[in-house]
Amino acid sequence: MACFRTSARLCRQFLFSNSPKTNLSAVYSPPRWMSTGKYEYIIVEKKGEKNNVGFIQLNRPKALNALCAGLMSELDQAVKSFETDNDVGCIVLTGSERAFAAGADIKEMQTKEFSEVWRGNFLSEWDSLSRCSKPVIAAVNGFALGGGCEVAMMCDIIYAGDKAQFGQPEITLGTIPGAGGTQRLCKAVGKSKAMEMVLTANRITAEEAEKAGLVSKVVPAVDLVNEAIKTAEKISSFSKIAAAMCKEAVNAGYEMSLKEGLHFEKRLFHASFASNDRREGMTAFAEKRPPQFTDS
Ligand code: CAA
């Protein structure tokens, strides 16, 4: 593992460090040519100096990016299209400056009946984001409430703008979180804080979220998307096979005992020896040169 760390350190040495700052107004007010194309509720682009970052922006500003069925279906399509795009090594998901997402669309849910949501397994289609094999970074500005907080938690890394607020207010609507708010939140922040959030609907700030372990970094709102893209570019520069293995191993740990998780990790580590990228990474280290990963 020490070799991997050193190899990673070598990689870092030749990674870009001066990518141009993303102008927030440009990110949040897309120019006309970037019109959503086949998408109505999201903006989808490739970003980064090498165009290797899949960028998805939730774009339903009047409804604070409430997650209606159409938006979630488009998000699913966009994630799947980046999943099969060989150039893309990491995905960034963001919202607007005011809201990452204010939850599932309450007006759309308002008239649904028990039999309909039960038989249709309502919200099960949301799970596809968490099945993406490529790393996904949520860049959260503003409200991440209910389903918004849950979608952020389906991502692998959460960066927050300094004005972000996280909460699970479903109890105020007479219901409960339905897309991971009682499960992933508990694993992220522990039982007491998760219970408090779910039972009181109290929101936590970006700083509290970082302290609790829900988010990994808080940055000024204006820098958030750029920070996320920088991290995504860095991840994209490594072997996509290794990145997928890292992600799979960490996520598997959520579902397994420590013993099973350690065994699974060891077997994936062994499997990495079948890849050209593992050979290249170690050879490059020994030859004191940057590695040229081929994702093979
Ligand atoms: N669904 C549908 N529309 C929503 C919405 C939501 N979740 N959140 C906000 N909107 C709409 C509002 O209805 C309003 O639309 P109109 O202008 O047409 O009236 C618009 O967005 C702006 O919202 P507000 O006027 O309420 O803005 P505000 O600044 O006063 O308040 C807010 C912002 C605190 C986020 C407030 O909008 C709010 O509390 N939203 C609901 C949050 C919530 O309860 N989320 C949980 C949803 S249930 C869920 O997500 C279940 C699950 O687990 C998947």
Written description of the protein model:
This protein is of the alpha/beta class and 296 residues long. 44% of the residues lie in helices and 14% in strands. It contains 13 helices and 10 strands. It has helices spanning 2-14, 24-28, 69-83, 106-109, 114-119, 147-154, 184-189, 191-200, 206-212, 224-237, 240-255, 258-272, 276-286, and strands at residues 42-47, 53-58, 90-94, 99-101, 136-140, 143-145, 157-161, 165-167, 204-205, 217-219. The strands form 2 sheets. A 6-stranded mixed β-sheet has the order 1-2-3-5-7-10, sandwiched between helices. It has a 4-stranded mixed β-sheet with strand order 4-6-8-9. Strand 1 and strand 2 (53-58) form a beta hairpin. Helix 1 crosses helix 13. The radius of gyration is 20 Å and the shape is globular. The two termini are 20 Å apart. The relative contact order is 0.13. Bound molecules: acetoacetyl-coenzyme A. The site of acetoacetyl-coenzyme A has 22 residues, from helix 4, strand 6 and helix 6.
